[in-house]
Amino acid sequence: MLRLVRIRRLTQLGLSLPEVKRALGGDHDRDLREILTELVADLERQEATVREQRQRLLALLGRERDLMLPSAVAELLEQVRSLVPDGQLVRREGELLELLESTLPPEQIAQLTDQYHSALADPQQVAGSITAARRFEALASAAPDDEEVAAVAADFITLGRELFPQPAESASAVGVEQDRVWVAYRAALSPAQQRCLLLVEQGHGS
What we know:
Elements: H1 2-12, H2 17-24, H3 28-61, H4 71-83, H5 87-103, H6 106-120, H7 123-138, H8 147-159, H9 173-187, H10 191-203
Helix pairs in contact: 1-2, 2-3, 4-5, 4-6, 7-8, 8-10
């Protein structure tokens, strides 16, 4: 009966059954002290994780929109939205940024973000990119061999790589996942838009 009482008491403290078995065998106090010390350390790690998660959730609740997006993408997209009146273009840009954020390493994301901020600070570049983006959307109903496809690709090449970014090549597992994501993204585009992307990549030396 005393053993059952101790088992109940230890499980209420959070010990697993293997830990209870260890605590009740051999030197009770020494083994139990080690187990409880490990348990306290584990709880402290959990508390830190919970606090971090709570802060992320509060930050999300503080936004008016884009709750599904990472903070860096949401902030950048909000800046894009303030400069671009076309909701369809903003949606496309948000999709592109979200995919890039999920497939590129943090250092490349930071570099890309800096490039975006620099481009968005230039009214002439913003106007040029909006025009090119609208023409790209219009390719949805064009034929792949339409002359407009090459013309739009040339515009994006002129505007610069940062305004039409692509994932970096990699032979790692991360690189394989990047390829899968971008294959799926391209598959959602029209044949003319897919050819435009290919021409842009070739123009950038990809």
